[in-house]
């Protein structure tokens, strides 16, 4: 993968020796970037569907100046296009650090990308960590196995007893965080000051890690952007997941069992394993041949996220959590308005008042609002409430801002907040970037930086962001007009009836 050169020159700021060997990054202004550092060995051949294994060490300097491949997937057009190809050999991290030397270790921000646990990667200009690094942080982005490579079970795999099974993508994230703990000080980062940040599937991942005993102690703070939190995306049981794996094996012409079946599955071409599994609106990815995400294995996942947070058994770390105002309408129900409101039972009148107060909204508008509330907006409030009840500080937000070049728009779409958080809006919007876009990005990015530095998003020069308390109807709105303000949640009535529906399940 990487070019090997002669032994590292002394006092070269772009040369670092980590546990596995010396590496060389590239100086880019006031930042040094290291791209494509392996944190585990390639999960190929007999290591396909195995927990990540330690990387083999090297002695010569390994160049880490270019992105390594992202994890194998059926590629689709994405808002954050990747600048490299996809491969099974994909377990790499990327790091940005300041050129300047500090007497104290710096706070660390670790990004976990979204993509439905099926698509995406770390090789996007939107996920560039230079803005954080320019402000004194060490930034890490990572790849993790996706789709059937990352989430797969089969009776032959269970019987092989090769270690934890099923949740390979989450195991990769845990391995990467352990790598950070072991190596980040070499880059000037403080392993005790790690903040994990993730959006969509990345947010789901962080909530999963907060509830996982296998991830205990690997991060000090968390930021969850559009990460759900209710049982709408609950993990399967292992026997259920195995049935999906058996269906996939049969669809691939594999009828054997035991070691023979496992050998045949591991011999399948990567393109066959990834076929049919990708983000698509209105389509069930992989049908009955892909489990769709995590499963309860007793090691990585011990229960559903909703149940763990309701019981207060999640990691006790400070949290920022929120969603976008026009988030993804996952699970939108077909039918006319009467059918849509019928699911609320005795709360139909309250639901109509919240979603269709004048009776004039079309069914599709109501359907989409209900779906986004159930999938993302109400679950984010539920997570905030659950964390607040444990006594841990939590800050609740709504991202309502839309880039000026995209107006008019009904609201902020799913994942549209990511470049604002990263401070990469110029890369996202190019010559269409407006001054108000930059101002809003500066504000959101500053809150996240303050939080990653101190455990509190507040800082000089920004509107005060009050911690969330259970029962609150207020939040921090990164508002449509470009202002940032604490305000009563305009969707509070909607979320209240959505909460009632969630509580009835």
TrEMBL record:
Protein's recorded name: Carboxylic ester hydrolase
InterPro entries recorded: AB_hydrolase_fold, CarbesteraseB, Carboxylesterase_B_AS, Carboxylesterase_B_CS, Type-B_Carboxylest/Lipase
Enzyme class of the recorded protein, top EC level: hydrolase
One of the Pfam families matching this protein, by short name: COesterase
Carboxylesterase type B domain segment(s): 14-489
Coiled coil: none
Molecular function as annotated in GO: hydrolase activity
Family recorded in the similarity comment: Belongs to the type-B carboxylesterase/lipase family.
Keyword terms of this UniProt record: Hydrolase
PANTHER family: CARBOXYLESTERASE
EC id: 3.1.1.-
């Amino acid at each position: 993968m990487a070019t090997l050169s002669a032994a590292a020159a002394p006092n070269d700021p772009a040369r670092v020796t980590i546990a596995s060997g010396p590496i060389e990054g590239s100086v880019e202004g006031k930042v040094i970037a290291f791209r494509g550092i392996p944190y585990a060995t390639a999960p190929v051949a007999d290591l396909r569907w195995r927990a990540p294994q330690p990387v083999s060490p090297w002695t010569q300097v390994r160049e880490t100046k270019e992105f390594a491949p992202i994890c194998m997937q059926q590629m689709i057009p994405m808002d954050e296009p990747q600048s490299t190809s996809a491969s099974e050999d994909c377990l790499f991290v990327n790091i940005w650090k300041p050129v300047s030397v500090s007497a104290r270790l710096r706070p660390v921000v670790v990004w976990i990308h979204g993509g439905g646990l099926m698509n995406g990667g770390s090789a996007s200009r939107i996920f560039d960590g230079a803005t954080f690094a320019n402000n004194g942080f060490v930034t890490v982005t990572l790849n993790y196995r996706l789709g059937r490579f990352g989430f797969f079970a089969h009776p032959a795999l269970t019987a092989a007893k090769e270690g934890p099974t099923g949740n390979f993508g989450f195991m990769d994230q845990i391995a990467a965080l352990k790598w950070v703990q072991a190596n980040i000080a070499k880059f000037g980062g403080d392993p005790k000051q790690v903040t994990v940040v993730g959006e969509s599937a990345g947010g789901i991942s962080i909530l999963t890690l907060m509830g996982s005993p296998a991830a205990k102690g690997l991060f000090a703070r968390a930021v969850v952007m559009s990460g759900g939190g209710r049982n709408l995306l609950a993990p399967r049981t292992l026997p259920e997941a195995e049935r999906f794996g058996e269906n996939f094996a049969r669809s691939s012409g594999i009828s054997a069992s035991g070691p023979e079946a496992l050998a045949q599955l591991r011999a399948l071409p990567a393109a066959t394993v990834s076929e049919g599994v990708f983000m698509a609106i209105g389509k069930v990815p992989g049908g009955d041949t892909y489990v769709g995400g995590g499963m309860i294995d007793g090691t990585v996942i011990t229960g559903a996220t909703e149940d763990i947070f309701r019981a207060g058994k999640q990691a006790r770390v400070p949290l920022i959590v929120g969603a976008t105002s026009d988030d993804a309408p996952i699970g939108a129900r077909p039918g006319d308005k009467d059918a849509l409101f019928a699911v609320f039972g005795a709360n139909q009148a309250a639901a109509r008042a919240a979603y269709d107060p004048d009776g004039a909204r079309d069914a599709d508008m109501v359907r989409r609002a209900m779906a986004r509330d159930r999938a993302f907006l109400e679950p984010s409030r539920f997570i905030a409430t659950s964390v607040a009840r444990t006594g841990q500080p939590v800050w609740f937000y709504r991202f309502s801002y839309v880039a000026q070049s995209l107006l008019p728009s009904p609201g902020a779409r799913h994942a549209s907040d990511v470049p604002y958080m990263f401070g990469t809006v110029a890369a996202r919007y190019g010559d269409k970037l407006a001054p108000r876009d930059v101002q809003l990005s500066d504000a959101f990015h500053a809150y996240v930086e303050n939080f990653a530095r101190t455990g509190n998003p507040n800082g000089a020069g920004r509107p005060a962001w009050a911690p969330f308390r259970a029962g609150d109807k207020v939040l921090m709105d990164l508002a449509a007009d470009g202002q940032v303000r604490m305000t009563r949640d305009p969707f509070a009535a909607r979320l209240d009836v959505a909460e009632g529906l969630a509580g009835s399940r």
